[in-house]
Amino acid sequence: MKLDLKKTAIDNGTKLFVSGEIDAYTAPQLKEALAPLTSEENSKTVVDLAGVDYIDSTGLGIFVGALKEAHNHNGELKIVSLNHRVKRLFTITGLDEVMDIDEEKEEAKR
């Protein structure tokens, strides 16, 4: 499966648009894209998952690691635009309690 990643600058950070499936094969690609973003001091990283229909435990682990890395550098990690199926995985695992997650597209709230 293919994973497409696109970055754009936002206030004090970067927004990463992810589309495709996040699984054991594509998770390293996601980790490689997130690592430099979350390791910047005082940076905000927003991950838009509107184009993601599937995520497995490997992908969830990438987000946990990215959250830890962001916190270690006084940064923020926010996940937005999740579909119902992907949001449910974050809820079942309890990650929605420790991560900043918003199902809605950010643009829709403005």
- How helical, in percent, are the residues? 25-40%
> Which CATH architecture is right?
2-Layer Sandwich
Average residue-wise pLDDT? 92
Number of domains: 1
Strand order, sheet with most strands: 1-2-3-4-5
CATH homology superfamily:
STAS domain
What structural category arises from helix and sheet content? Answer: alpha/beta
Order of helices and strands: EEHEHEHE
What do you see in this structure?
It contains three helices and five strands, in the order ββαβαβαβ. With 110 residues, it is an alpha/beta fold. The protein has a single domain (3-109), classed as STAS domain (Transcription Regulator spoIIAA), CATH 3.30.750.24. The protein has a five-stranded mixed sheet with strand order 1-2-3-4-5, with helices on both faces. α1 (27-38) runs parallel beside α2 (57-72). It is globular and about 30 Å long. The model has no long low-confidence stretch (mean pLDDT 92).
Keyword list:
5-stranded mixed beta sheet; globular; 5 strands; 35% strand; 110 residues; Transcription Regulator spoIIAA; alpha/beta
Can you summarize this structure?
By secondary structure, the protein is an alpha/beta fold. The protein is 34% helix and 35% strand. It is globular, with a radius of gyration of 13 Å.
